Amino acid sequence: MPSAPLRSPDAVMKLARLGCFHQTRLSFMRVLLRRLAREKWSFARTAWNIDAKGEGHAVYEISGNGRIYSLVAFGKEIDPAKRTDRVIADEWDSTFALHDGRVSKTDIERLSRNIPKQEAGRFSAAEIVLARANKSVRLFELVTARLAEGRQPTEAELDEVGYLMRTTAVYGSGKFGLADYETVSSRSEFSGPFAAEMLAVWLIRAYTLDLVEHMARSASPFNAVPLRRDLKRRLGVGNSTGLGMAPFLVTHPSLVDRWITARETALARVRAVYRASYREIELFRDLLDRGRRQIDAWTVDDAVQMARIKGLRQDLDALSSHLASTDLHSDYAWEGLFRFAEANLGIEAQEYLVTLLLEPYGHLVDDLATRMSCDETRCFKIDGSAPVGSLVRAIDASYGFAVNTDFDAAGATARFWYVSEEKLEPRLGERAVDDGEDLEQPLAVARDAKALGETLRKLPADMRLAAFLLDHPEFRHVVRRVQIAVQFPYAEIRDNLIDAAMRPVDLLRCKLSFFGASNFDPRSDRWVRIALFRHAPLPDELLSSDPDDWAIPPLEAVKTIAVAQEAAQTNAQAVGSAVAGEDRWSLNETDALVRKAARGAGLSWGLAEETGKAARTLAITCEHCLSTLADVLEAGRAGELSRKVIRHGASFRAACDKPLDPLVIGPSLVDHEFLLDAGTLSIEGSIRAPILLLPYLRKMALEAARPLVVSTNLGSLMITGCANADTAPAALSEDVASLRLSISENPVGAVPAHAPIQAVMLPQEVRQRFEALAALTYVPSSERSRATGAGAGLNDND
């Protein structure tokens, strides 16, 4: 397909530009609604047991592709003083879960004991998303009162807020025992990023509209009227989010690259259009007019964002004037318009033009939505065979922004990222006044990349990275990032994330633009309110209206006649509810907990990341492996193990007379797997708990595509690389005095596919040991951090 050159990552990945991104037709909620409409999913409210105070439960079902998903909602009347945007809250107006299948009475009873507790509850693999929301009291009460009086609210009254309820958290991907992403990602409806979360929010929107009408009828049974359909569409679901979301763009570099690459590729395809059709030109002009009206109505209190909005309004006026004398029927007219914007408009307008240019070209760009996911495990492994010189060149190519930063300058290291002890959420501290610098999270990418480069430049260019990392494990996490950036050019934000002038809200806006958010309203530089699904079709309109012409609302509100749709019958079988319990943990939350515990036990960030990944494999290998892992972490922290490894040729040993820590030697073996091509790798001396080496040995077998022969003083075994085939072997069942590795001559054959693991058992005693170690990485909260670290205020009764 014809394509113009993609924009340089040095230009695109600056915070000043990322913080000006707008929704596009590749945004996740728009991709979701197109899919649901195309596949003709049907919707029904199957239960409404809400009383006059708004307490009780409701159930919404959506069905298609032979499956059913149920949104289970619980309403509660709460003290207004409890209503807050902050994660410190423990009560909410409504709480929700997206359940895999049709819910039973038993499910409702179980969920009623857990959903209202949110983080304090436990969930089963049958729950995919967990969420909670508070009323926007001012608008909710206004609409309730108007409807109870038999009147409709005005458009202006609705537009001032844009939603009846605002979510303060939407969780997925294995949190609190929810289904791991891997268990549902193969389903077409959930194949895109955050698709399940977007589905839950869209169904929550239907609940909020039903709830306000119900409260009006409860207040005035004989006078109340339903909310007019065109007014319903004006309302979305609000969301408040703060620093908890910000690190995502840093901790998922390869995934972020896929998002940005798709967006940039879409822009490049449209720029390469030789000659636009009459329909495409007219649609673009119409969207510009609609967009100008939308931006004119966008007003916020934040001075920085308001200045950007005013500049955007002026630039869109200039763009409109330019179009009056521009022939869009000429060759490569979109490329000319793009160049005009680059030369004459501000960044906010340049990025809004990206949104406008993509809109007429669904047939050219919508396929890119299928490329916005990636298997992050494929690029997690460090290539230890690479020479030091290759990494230096990669740093120069991708991290020039870091190399050229003077970190001794005032303000360059003014801030640090940490995890709050109170709610286990990311926070941003001021290095000069806040405690916790010694527990800094690994988000100072620019500083660390520059330090890595300076260290590597002092070494021989042909030295292997594996040898370097033996002596410098503190750089493992940065080495991994640099190697990822070589493959994924848009993986790295090219700015200093600990600078005094850095605005975290720019990180939030970038991610929220990919969700499809509108009404971006910063409440400080650390938290923001937005709206989702404003003007989108309602669930019962999805099959009778355009699922994609709403993000930039039409100039005239579409007056659609209500279409009564009978609930579709389906032969889909409801998914049975797995038992939720204290000991049942998802793989993702096991990984996250063990990663923090490993860091608390004193391992470097890179080794801690690898320990978390290893825990996923160990959890499904044997029932005692995680307990053994806790033993080793505690022993390592107590100084009972050697974490310093010395290599001579293909032989490894501890630097002292203590047993080797398997969590250190395991990654080192993987780094040096290239030595197996020449023969045998060996470890001389005692190794504590060698069963913990299994995840690393499996990686080596998979990489070699042949079985790995492992010999110890207790026996020998063959590792195939398949977690299901390699059970806990006797040869690694206790401490060993030595170990030999070699490659079998026999090919490993195809690794058999296996069903995703629904959950693992993590006994309470073992979990508490991990939690005690993880707690060593948390910074105690203070009144100052509560007021400024998270960003949000303490009370929210607007």
Describe it for me?
The protein is an alpha+beta fold and 798 residues long. It is built from 28 helices and 20 strands. Strands 1-2-3-4-5-6-7-11-10 form a nine-stranded mixed sheet, sandwiched between helices. α5 (137-148) crosses α7 (195-219). It starts with 8 loop residues before the first helix and ends in a 9-residue tail after the last helix.
**What structural category do the secondary elements indicate?**
alpha+beta
Query: How big is the Rg?
Result: 28 Å
Helix content: 25-40%
Give the biggest beta sheet: 9 strands, mixed
Write out the strand line-up for the largest beta sheet, numbering strands in chain order: 1-2-3-4-5-6-7-11-10
State the end-to-end CA separation. Answer: 50 Å
Overall pLDDT confidence: 90
Shape: globular
Helix tally equals: 28
Strand fraction:
5-15%
Low-confidence stretches: 557-580
> What is the strand tally?
20
What does the oligomeric state look like here?
Answer: single chain
Report a brief summary of the structure.
Helices cover 38% and strands 15% of the residues. It is α+β, with helices and mostly antiparallel strands. The strands form 4 sheets. It has a 9-stranded mixed β-sheet, sandwiched between helices.
